[in-house]
Amino acid sequence: MKKSQLLKERLPETINMTPEGYLADDLSIEDFQRIHKEFFRKIFEIGSVDVTDFCGYGEFTEDAQLPYVTCKEFLVDTFSNEQEGYWYHWKDMFQTTLLEEEVFNRYYEKMMECISFCEGKRFLFYNNTFFCNMVTDGETVTGFPDWSRAGVGDFLLDFAIMDLNKPYLLIPELLFQYCKEEGIKIPDFKGRYLCMAYYKALATLLWHASIDDEESCNSIVKYLNELEERMNRIS
């Protein structure tokens, strides 16, 4: 079975892969605040898709396989220095780009400390919840068009990506309140969220450092520096 076929068969009709509307990136802060629960409901719907007959973690291959046995393998291999292609010997960037080794190592270790919270948490994730990849009509979320990075792991990854994209929207703070209101219990919420957030922020930091995007790198480092204090205030 191909990944595209798998997703078409498994996703509920309420999760549209060819949506109409405009990019959520165009929403004002006020508009997002008004309809943020619609985003949360859709992400929970994605996470509720049954994946128990698939073993492993990570992004689906084109043949709908999951390449890693454990969550730890998935996260650690993302930062392997021996990857083929673009990221081969990426650690050379510590000497050739604005990527700071001390900063990377600090938050990599924090991610490693939190991985145990995410082990065994196997849900379908979209893994592309940047606001430029979600479509809305201004009242609800009409769909998610790009499933190229979909896979299995902790669904909190999708919320962490939203927060990394626009931290001023206070996604984990709103999510924590939403779960209280809806009676949704997320065991080890803080540890799991931090793990997914560190993981995605570091991976995104590497990309922006590789293209010498100083503004984005500074923004991501600021996000990392503030994240744990934010989580301590809400959990």
Structural write-up:
The protein is mainly alpha-helical and 235 residues long. It has one domain: Aminoglycoside 3'-phosphotransferase, Chain: A, domain 2 (Alpha-Beta Complex). Helices cover 52% and strands 6% of the residues. It has a 3-stranded antiparallel beta sheet. A 3-stranded antiparallel beta sheet has the order 2-6-3. A hairpin with a 4-residue loop joins strand 4 and strand 5. Helix 6 crosses helix 8. The radius of gyration is 17 Å and the shape is globular. The model has no long low-confidence stretch (mean pLDDT 97).
Structural class: mainly alpha
CATH superfamily: Aminoglycoside phosphotransferase (APH), C-terminal lobe
Give the biggest beta sheet.
3 strands, antiparallel
N-to-C SSE string, H for helix and E for strand: HEHEHHHEEEEHHHH
The neighbouring-strand order within the major sheet is: 1-4-5
Distance between the ends:
41 Å
Strand elements, count = 6
**Helicity level:** 40-55%
Rounded Rg: 17 Å
List the total number of helices. Answer: 9
* Number of structural units classed as domains: 1
Poorly predicted runs:
none
